[in-house]
Amino acid sequence: MNRCTQPGCAGGIDADGFCDVCDPESILADPDLTAILDLDRPVGVLLFSVLHCVSDDDLVR
């Protein structure tokens, strides 16, 4: 996890492939994430190289 203490600073969390991108609520509820992000403020979520790992059935949901 990259922590940032300055307002407007970017940080990141590397889930090491152990999160379900089809369940974004579980990602956003992760204690490591909520410890550094205030989800009551605007937040950008970038998911790189994940769409090819999602099954066609999950894409339809």
TrEMBL record:
InterPro entries reported for this sequence: SAM-dependent_MTases_sf, SAM_dep_MeTrfase_SAV2177_type
Pfam families hit by this protein: Methyltransf_19
Originating species: Actinomadura latina
Name of protein: Uncharacterized protein
